[in-house]
Write a structure and sequence with these properties.
This protein is of the alpha+beta class and about 140 residues long. It has 2 domains: about 45 residues, no CATH class; about 90 residues, Winged helix-like DNA-binding domain superfamily/Winged helix DNA-binding domain (Arc Repressor Mutant, subunit A), CATH 1.10.10. Helix content is about 55%, strand content about 15%. The strands form 2 sheets. Strands 1-2 form a two-stranded antiparallel ribbon. Strands 3-4 form a two-stranded antiparallel sheet. Strand 3 and strand 4 form a beta hairpin. Helix 2 packs across helix 3 and helix 4 crosses helix 5. The two termini are about 25 Å apart. The relative contact order is 0.12. The mean pLDDT is about 80.
Length: about 140
């Protein structure tokens, strides 16, 4: 992935975060040779929005568990935890996953390798990339 693609992903993330938090996406306009971006203010997330985010994450996890069952795979509790955490934060590191799941980084890597290509995909480099859920 080129530097431009990595830099471009940051803006896509901003748009996704704005949308997830109920804010409008940024608007663009040019003024001679200057690109002006207007970032709408993000209001505090209400409990209703928080519940919707949690509900969406739960539905995604349930879909992945159903997908595993139809493929004859069994997702262990550690793998389910990894998927939940990746759904919550696609930019999470293996070290952070290790701390949150309570297993070693090597065990996180082994679990990810089992799920790679079926449920998870790495987009970009180890540093600066992100996890994508394969639904």
């Amino acid at each position: 992935m080129s530097d431009a693609e990595v830099i471009g992903e940051g803006f896509d993330r901003i748009c996704r975060e704005q949308e997830a938090n109920g804010a409008n996406v940024p608007s663009f306009r040019t003024d001679k040779f200057i690109l002006k971006i207007t970032m709408p203010k993000v209001a505090d997330i209400s409990s209703v929005q928080s519940e919707k985010v949690i509900e969406t994450e739960q539905k995604m996890t349930e879909k992945l568990i159903e997908k595993a069952a139809t493929q004859g795979d069994r997702l262990t509790e550690n793998r389910k935890s990894i998927l939940r955490l990746v759904i919550d934060d696609p930019y999470i590191s293996k070290a952070d996953l290790s701390k949150l799941v309570g297993i070693s980084v090597a065990a996180i890597s082994a679990n990810i390798e089992v799920m790679r290509g079926k449920y998870l995909r790495r987009v970009g480099p180890d540093k600066g990339g992100f996890w994508e859920i394969i639904s």
